[in-house]
Amino acid sequence: MAALVKRWETKSRFGDLAVVAFLLMQCLDGVFTYLGIRIWGPAIEANPLISSAMAAAGVVAALGAAKGVAIGFGMLLHLHRVHSLVALLTAIYFAVAILPWTALFLMN
C-alpha cells in the first residue's frame, strides 16, 4: 500500500501517460453515462450519489460536476507525483466503468 502513495522524485513519462489515461477514462465515462441515460433512462446509473445529483441538478450539471471533481483530484495526485495511484485509479475506472458501458452498448 505504501508504494501506491509513494511520491516519485522526478518527472516521469509514466506519470504523464497515467494522468492522460486517467483524463481519457473520466471523459469516456462521462460521455458513456450521458449516452446510457439518454438510451435507457436515469435508472441505468448505478452510483447513488450521481443519481441523486442528476435528480437535483440535471444530467449534464451532475455529470459535469462529478467529472470535474474527479479530474481535479486526479490532477492534484499527478502534480504531487503520486503516479502509481493515478495509474491504479485509471485501471479501476477502466474495469468498473468503461468495460461495463461498452458491454451494454455492444449488447444493444
Structural account:
- The protein is mainly alpha-helical and 108 residues long.
- It has a domain at 63-108.
- Helix content is 78%, strand content 0%.
- The chain contains four helices and no strands.
- The longest helix has 28 residues, at 13-40.
- It is elongated and about 45 Å long.
Indicate the topology.
Layout: H1 13-40, H2 48-57, H3 59-79, H4 83-107
List keywords for this structure.
108 residues; elongated; 0% strand; mainly alpha
Radius of gyration: 15 Å
Estimated helix fraction:
over 70%
Overall body shape = elongated
Average pLDDT rating: 93
Low-confidence stretches are none
Distance separating the two termini = 40 Å
Helical segment tally? 4
Number of strands: 0
Strand % is under 5%
Structural class estimated from helices and strands: mainly alpha
What kind of sheet is the major sheet?
Answer: none
N-to-C order of helices and strands: HHHH
